[in-house]
Amino acid sequence: MFRRVAFRCIAGCSETYPLDQAIYRCPQCQNLLEVAHDLEPLKQRSGAEWRQLFDARIGRVAWPGTSGVWTKKEWICPELDDEAIVSLGEGATPLLPLQRFASKLGVGELWLKQCGASHTGSFKDLGMTVLVSVVQQAIRSGRSIRAVACASTGDTSASLAAYAAAAGIACIVILPRGKVTRAQLVQPLACGAHVLALDTDFDGCMHIVQRLAVEAGVYLANSMNSLRLEGQKTVAIEIVEQLGWRVPDFVIIPGGNLGNVSALGAGFDMMEALGTITKRPRIVVAQAEAANPLYLAYKNAWKFVPVAARTTLASAIQIGNPVSIEKAIAALKKYDGIVEQASESELAKNAARADLQGLFTCPHTGVALAALEKLVQKKVIAKNHSAVVISTANGLKFTDFKIGYQQGTLAGVAHAQPNLLAELPHDYDAVRRKVDEITS
Ligand SMILES: *Cc1c(COP(=O)(O)O)cnc(C)c1O
Ligand SMILES: [Zn+2]
User: Fold this and answer.
1) For position 2, what pLDDT does the model report?
2) Is residue 254 part of a domain?
3) Among 5, 252, 319, 371, which one is least packed by beta carbons within 10 Å?
4) Ligand nearest to the CA of 368
């Protein structure tokens, strides 16, 4: 059924595996798999023709035309039955120009890719639509899959639960107890997922779900399943398309389990292979200082050692042993990569600064903005450069972080400009005096 795309080992073992097989690692060498596309049929269109085709699909509403993923179906999963697709209108998110921010900082051009403006409020939707659609097709063709399952720092489970519910597939999510926000916790509960909270961290949950998925019937939905990355790679394509097929000089992305940076690289790879672009950006991964194994590897000639992740406000990237480390390092080597880190204060300050320009950024986006600021200070990014910062989630999922900042109660964060509620009596003169004070 799937001939033009197949799983293959990232270490180059010769065997390939059909996309609808539940397989996550190479049976020969235990490395991760990636999805390999037969590019020959795709090369029948020129780069210019692909650009035109994708541009022509923007703004159509006919299903699944509102999806930023399925409008590029030929590059994602060409042989998937349209009837198997489970879409919740993911992707096609805004690319906001941040000109005032850029001028202040000393960057030529700056954009924020608002991946949190998606169905469940994070970029995870881009990958889940592909994974759950392939599972749907596998079930239809008689494969026995009783449930989909994931370990999560919050956003993966919210997304998987929504897509599984839309498809009518049972969903099990495994979370570190007390380490996800209330909004992230209620999303899978509302969508009817079975939520298991364990007394461990994300890395501990990941270990358990990998063991579960070895047994038949439980299908693993974490990003070590490279189907996820096939959807997530569209973020690169969307950015370039939204810039009129211009490639920015830098793309900055917060990283935890490091699937997303691998996907970003894969998106640029595919555009280059199919002639829609000729330039490569530099890719920057931003990590929280409290969970910085990739940063440490970068500083040590890419020698990777797992760490125990400490608590960070950027809870979705509180990961010490990233599953996709090898893919990420390969992508960074190819894209002249840089890794930066941000302290709790730096991430909070940058998120707050962005909010004062009308945004409402999640802490992970704060980490990425802090990395941008540091690279400007180090004169790596300058006035003649363009940069895109990937905002990974919606700030509305992180209201405790927002409130804590304003109240000055965040651990390790000195807040510069608290904006406190003015509580007044129901009295015109009191309100008048307050307004005079504000406007004087
Ligand atoms: C998942 C997630 C990340 C990290 O993505 P990885 O692929 O794990 O590196 C960053 N930010 C948010 C908000 C996330 O949900
Ligand atoms: Zn192998």
Assistant:
1) 83
2) yes
3) 5
4) 1
